[in-house]
From TrEMBL:
Entry GO MF terms: O-methyltransferase activity; protein dimerization activity
Highest taxon in the source lineage: Eukaryota
Protein's name according to its UniProt entry: Uncharacterized protein
Entry keyword annotation includes Ribosomal protein: no
O-methyltransferase C-terminal domain ranges (all copies): 137-340
PANTHER family, A to Z: O-METHYLTRANSFERASE
Pfam families: Dimerisation, Methyltransf_2
Domain O-methyltransferase dimerisation, chain residue ranges per copy: 22-113
Active site: H264
BP terms from Gene Ontology: methylation
UniProt keyword annotations, A-Z: Methyltransferase, S-adenosyl-L-methionine, Transferase
Amino acid sequence: MEATEADSQAFVKILEASMVSFLPMAINAAVRLGILEILQAAEQVAEDEETTLSAMEITARLQGRTASLEETETSLNRILRALASHGLLTATSTGSSVTRYGLNLSSRFLVQSDILPSLSHFIRYMQDPVTLLACSKLDQAVLHGGNAFAMVHGSAFFPFTQQNKTYAQTFNNAMSGHSQLFMIKFLDTYGGLQTLHSLVDVGGGNGDCLRSITTRYPHIRGINLELPHVVEKAPSYPGVEHVAGDMFVDIPKADAIFMKWIIHDWDDESCLKILKNCHRSLPPHGKVILVEFILPDIVQESSDDRLAYYLDINMLGFAPGGMERTKGQFETLSLASGFSKLDIICKFYGMSVMEILK
Ligand SMILES: C[S@@+](CC[C@H](N)C(=O)[O-])C[C@H]1O[C@@H](n2cnc3c(N)ncnc32)[C@H](O)[C@@H]1O
């Protein structure tokens, strides 16, 4: 049978989709090897010097190598060119000269430093064997019900993190990195904080979102409501009080409540409990600031929408009853919890900022 162009493209598309999991594996290798930081350091040399690096130049700067220079250069180049083929690094070569690699806007988000936040922990969490193993049981969860994570690891995600300190650290660092980057854009885009005097972050992890907010608005008292094992390890930040508790039982009172990536972890019944507790804790004109992906009403193929579908699969496997939701589903939950209205205020980095008003 002669393959038509459409037939050939379809074949390649499904084969690529089958193998695309090697992409985060290659990103993880680059993160663990410190390649992004090596590329960044090369950018900081004198202006007249080359700011991109060849695989050999990166190899010479790698820590902990025991293979020969040539062997490492060859394997490293294979990782670098795969990343460049996905637009995650720049790759330049003239004629037969060796390829030189550099950071671009996307890979810059992975550079780890003491000052700048990064998504490097996010990729480490996504590629952690605990995470990957749970994903292997999705089909069983679909057929038999229940939750893939619990099938593999013996308990649901959050109880597991309470027992497994290393994995909890990996997860919390992933959330911190994402939150720190997200909040830079959030504070430049969202204008609904100035008039607040107190703000609770429900399930605020290490407290990174509140730290960003209280740094920009020092008059706001930040209260981070978290599970005891998270509070125990959370660093202290000026203006942020960590409160060990349970959002299903009680939420501290404040002018407003912030929740990022909380509602998507839970089924509707649990979300109603959380939102009703929010309603009870807020003053008459209080609001919940909700940050989540919003699913489109009909299937879409954009990168933003794909992110929401991927995370939805993550919730399917990891969070019993957890799911990404449409605007209509967020509205239904809000109104059923006693709130009067939900507005989408802005959208960036794939996520929407919503306000739910009392
Ligand atoms: C997906 S993470 C989001 C963390 C943070 N909001 C962020 O976006 O970086 C969900 C958080 O909810 C917290 N959490 C889970 N159950 C909770 C409960 N019953 N009460 C308070 N926090 C809870 C978890 O410890 C975790 O930090």
